[in-house]
Every structure is written in structure tokens, then in C-alpha cells.
Amino acid sequence: MKTVSKTLALIALASSSAAFAATDFDTLDVDGNGVVSKSEAAVDAKIMSQFKTLDVNGDGVLTEAEFSEAE
Of the candidates 71, 67, 59, which has an alpha carbon nearest to the alpha carbon of residue 26? Predict the structure, then answer.
């Protein structure tokens, strides 16, 4: 059920016009777990294009500190 809720939240976020301009960490962290996953970052093309570089420790998610390095 938790996965369904996350999926629905991501769909709702992606369908809003503001999602494509999202550059705020808290906006992208849909599930509020303190990190931005690739699926959460997917709504922002700019962040997705930098994701691998920003993910300094290679754990597959962006912390707020890693996210703050986005150009």
C-alpha cells in the first residue's frame, strides 16, 4: 500500500505544471524521508541530468547537501 501511495503522489506531482519547474529540495522529496530518489527527481529534467554527478557517495539518492550543489 505504501508503494501505491508513493506512486500516486509522484503521478500527481508530475501532472502538475509546477512539477516541471521544481528545484526545491522539499518539493522533490515527495515522501518526506529526507532524500530525493531518482523517481522523485524524474519530475525535474535539470536535476535528473545532473543526478549521477550530484550523488557523490553513489547511494542512489540525493541528500539536501548533495542537492544544494545543483547548478
Answer: 67
Grid cell digits, residue 19 = 512539477
- pLDDT, one tens digit per residue, over 30-58 is 999 999 999 999 999 999 999 999 999 99
pTM (predicted TM-score): 0.69
- Amino acid found at 35: V
3-state secondary structure of 19: helix
Give residue-wise pLDDT tens across range 1-13. 566 666 666 665 5
Do β-strands 36-37 and 61-62 pair in parallel, antiparallel, or remain unpaired?
A: antiparallel
Task: Give helix then strand counts, H and E, for the chain.
Answer: 5, 2
Please tell me the distance from the alpha carbon of residue 32 to that of residue 2, in angstroms, as a whole number.
13
- Given CA atoms 55, 60, 65, 70 in this order, what sign does their dihedral have? positive
